[in-house]
Sequence to fold (139 residues):
Amino acid sequence: MERTLAFYATLFSKDFTAYTTRRLGQIGLSFASLFPLIYVGKHPGCTQSQLTGALGLDWGYSQRTVLRLAGEGFLSRTRQGRAWCLELTLKGQEAFSLSHQVFGDWDAGALAGLTPAERGQLFTLLAKIQIERHPIRHV
Fold:
């Protein structure tokens, strides 16, 4: 197979997903829970509708994920009017912290062979590609 950006992006994605699944699995989380958990951690009191829109999720998928996270003790759901507001529980806060650590740890391993200048150049070029293709979503 020809070495293309798509080729490397796919390899990195698979590797990151496997690494994250192993790490989060230790506390009972799946990779699918990673971004919803991070979003609620960064936006305490957000509604499920806000989470769904910000992450570009399908409503049914979002509903199942939120209910699973709440059922497993990572999130609390409080009814305010017609909306459900979401907060991390203590268990969720610990998972939120681990989720951030997973990103840093994976990056450290993946980028170990690059100098700081090379890392900076790589991120600058990747950001340029991302901005030209899609606006960056802030999780």
Observations:
- The beta strands are 75-80, 83-88.
- The mean pLDDT is 91.
- The chain is about 65% helix and 10% strand.
